Amino acid sequence: NAGVTQTPKFQVLKTGQSMTLQCAQDMNHNSMYWYRQDPGMGLRLIYYSASEGTTDKGEVPNGYNVSRLNKREFSLRLESAAPSQTSVYFCASSEGEGSNEQFFGPGTRLTVL
Amino acid sequence: QQQVKQSPQSLIVQKGGISIINCAYENTAFDYFPWYQQFPGKGPALLIAIRPDVSEKKEGRFTISFNKSAKQFSLHIMDSQPGDSATYFCAARLANFGNEKLTFGTGTRLTIIP
User: How many CA atoms lie within 13 A of A27 on its CB side?
Assistant: First the structure.
């Protein structure tokens, strides 16, 4: 039982490049989330998926797209990376439907030059 | 607009002392208040949580105190140990069935010194 896994762990991009961050969970959770963590800003929700087939914007969705590929996988795409997107990205999952605890992955550290 | 305000930003406590981190919220529709602990290079993990119908919850050395009228809650770590050195985030969830979004505070970096 690996929990929530994220790939890659580290990535350096040039401005304007695109990339997809991958997230998978093996806990049969319904809900999945993408956060970014910046110094002094805490964790801010980018997008979330309450269930397979649905996605909704969070607090800071601009510049990102997501895909809930199936119940296990939730990917985050940067179409044209900007230096302001330099951050640590965390994926999380929860059972949904009134459950409380969110389980976080180990994070992806992204630098955009 | 930050809906959950956390203080202090950093905290240094001697081993064996009490660490206290405070959070304040604005939205009275929040119905669940967790604290997450994060070690360097790791994702956050749930430490302890409370609902607003309870004024205090204790799990081992960790206690949440909740003041509904003041819209404040705090984390107390008793007998603080070097292994408690981490970043702590408070959070709050809106009461909306099926919507489990959390709003996080900005985090407190706690350092326990020998």
Answer: 20
Pairing of strands B10-14, B108-113: parallel
Q: Which residues in chain A have Cβ-Cβ distances shorter than 8 Å to B90?
A: none
Can you tell me the distance from the alpha carbon of B97 to that of B31, in angstroms, rounded to the nearest whole number?
Answer: 11
Strand partners, A112: A13
Identify the contact set of chain B against chain A, taking CB-CB distances under 8 A: 6, 9, 32, 34, 36, 41-46, 49, 89, 93, 97-107
d(CA B51, CA B55): 8
Per residue in B46-74, pLDDT (tens digit) is: 999 999 899 999 999 999 999 999 999 99
- CB-based contact A52:A68 (threshold 8 Å): yes
**What residue has token string 């490049």?**
A17
Task: Please tell me the least confidently modeled range out of A43-57, A93-107, B82-96.
Answer: A93-107
Give the model confidence (pLDDT) of A12-58 as tens digits: 999 999 999 999 999 999 999 999 999 888 999 999 998 888 999 99
A interface test, pick of B100, B102, B104 with most A CB neighbours within 10 Å: B100
